[in-house]
Specification:
Blueprint: E1 2-9, E2 17-25, E3 33-35, E4 39-40, E5 44-52, E6 61-70, H1 81-84, E7 85-94, H2 95-100
Antiparallel strand pairs: 1-5, 2-3, 2-4, 2-6, 6-7
């Protein structure tokens, strides 16, 4: 399996923070996670991150999640990472969908449907 995360566009920039993309297997190996480097929040972010790895059909697919992490403020003491990180949107890509494609690939921009950005 080869996955490339290139960029994100049209991101609201009303807060300060950083963006990452997390790749995670959907089933049987959900602890397998890969993250892009953190990039400063702007309306268009570029990563050019590439991953190559082997997968088993039993994992059923992968999830890509665009995550926003608020900047640390000096008044925040001992806050957990999860309290500052929000998922802006996710893409669930099943191996079945990839295998049905003539090129055995998914290539293109993805619109994230859910948005928890506050």
């Amino acid at each position: 399996m080869f996955v490339a995360v290139i960029a994100a566009r049209n991101i609201p920039t009303s807060q300060k923070g950083k963006l990452t993309v997390r790749l995670q297997m959907q089933h049987k190996a959900s602890s397998f996670q890969l993250d892009t480097a953190a990039a400063p929040l702007s309306s268009e972010v570029t990563w050019n991150q590439k991953w190559a790895f082997g997968v088993e059909i039993s994992t059923e697919g992968l999830t890509l999640a665009l995550q926003f992490r608020r900047s640390k403020k000096s008044t925040q003491i001992l806050r957990s990472r999860d309290s500052r990180t929000k998922v802006l949107g996710e893409l669930h890509l099943s191996w079945k969908k990839v295998l049905e494609s003539p090129s055995l690939a998914y290539n293109g921009w993805v619109s994230l449907e859910s948005s928890n950005y506050q």
